[in-house]
Amino acid sequence: MRPLPPSLPRFEATLGGAFEAEGAGLHTGKHSRLRATPAPAGHGVVFRRRTRKGVFDVPALWTNRRSRPLCTALQVGEGPLVRTVEHLMAAFAAHGVDNALVEIDGEELPIFDGSAEPWCERILAAGRVELAAPRRYYRVRKRVAYQHKAHKQRIEPFDGFEMSVAITLSHFGQLKWIGPTDAETFRRELAPSRSFGRLKWALPAKIIGLFWFGEPVLKGASARNTLALVGAGAVGGLRMPDEPVRHRALDMVGDFALAGAPLLGRVTASRPGHEHNYGLLALLMQDRAAWEAVTIGEDGRPRPVV
Questions:
Q1: The dihedral of CA 276, 277, 281, 284: what is its sign?
Q2: Is 83 in contact with 107 (CB distance < 8 Å)?
Q3: Which GO terms describe its cellular component (predicted)?
């Protein structure tokens, strides 16, 4: 096997210290507080909720993913839900944080300004500490494709992780982003992008969520935490001309982090969304011939985990 990029860490890592955050959720509108602390090798990212019924740990794994409108949610069995984890998971993944315990006193993570920048700032302040255990990767061995109507995604072998993401929006036309998702690129090109939607659909979405899905949808959304698109522009302006597609790429980084180990492959996506990201990830993980677990040796070459 050829050597992998030298930027890929050989060992698992955790936070160098704890960090805290609080704020309202995008969908529930409810205020929550969380505290993220270091965790040992092999722990993974685990969310912990304390309710009247007890303490519940919810590992951030694709098998625990639950379908909820416009976000990524996690649940174990009939336990409590943890909603809108994708921005924090993306920031953890980009910064190579494999293990952390995230205790939260509510159902939904704070949305802040709708971007991942506040999470990146907290992770950088806490620091990253490598652990003694070799870091496991899931190396894609063959092409896997997903399609639902006009939503298409595929992942194929690649030495590293790279994404090509395209969306088409009225008044904007086609927007496309291509690149790796290392920490520097993520912070510069993806983290500042915000959750977005058409302003005219905000109120209908809240009503549909309540009466159709029976779920809170965008109850906490406002111009302070959501990029509200109007025509070919946005309320308050765009941070980048192609900000919407960059946010879809950000969400994909967080959703694919639910694999349980960093993926080595190239993803190509047209009109992605949370449901479609999960659709591709589930197809990949369920096909054991499509990937193999590897670590990185001292020579930089991948070594199969036996």
A1: positive
A2: yes
A3: membrane
Neighbour count for residue 156 (Cβ, 10 Å): 15
**Long-range CB contacts (within 8 A, 24+) of 172-181:** 172/232, 172/244, 175/242, 175/244, 175/245, 176/242, 176/245, 177/242, 177/245, 177/246, 177/249, 179/249, 181/93, 181/94, 181/249, 181/253
Distance CA 85, CA 26 (A): 11
124 half-sphere exposure, CB direction, 13 A CA radius: 11
pLDDT tens string 219-269: 898 889 999 899 989 999 999 999 999 999 999 999 999 999 999 999 999
Does domain 11-304 fall under CATH 3.30.230.20? My reply is yes
User: What's phi and psi for 60, nearest 5 deg?
Assistant: -80, 80
Number of helices followed by number of strands (H, E) in the chain: 6, 21
- Is 274 annotated as catalytic? yes
Distance CA 93, CA 255 (A): 10
Q: Is 257 helix (H, G, I), strand (E, B) or coil?
A: helix
Residues in Cβ contact with 201 at an 8 Å cutoff, skipping those fewer than 6 apart:
none
Alpha-carbon distance values, 85 to 56, 80, 137, 227, 250 (Å): 16, 14, 21, 19, 12
Q: Is 68 helix (H, G, I), strand (E, B) or coil?
A: strand
**Can you give the pLDDT at residue 210?**
53
| Domain assignments of the chain as residue spans, ordered by start | 11-304
Per DSSP, 105 falls in state: S
User: Which secondary-structure segment (H or E) carries 7?
Assistant: none
Look up residue 94 and give its DSSP letter.
H
Confidence of residue 181 (pLDDT cuts 50, 70, 90): very high
Identify the three-state secondary structure at position 174.
Answer: strand
* Catalytic residue selected from 27, 87, 274, 276: 274
Q: How far apart are CA 290 and CA 181, in angstroms?
A: 22
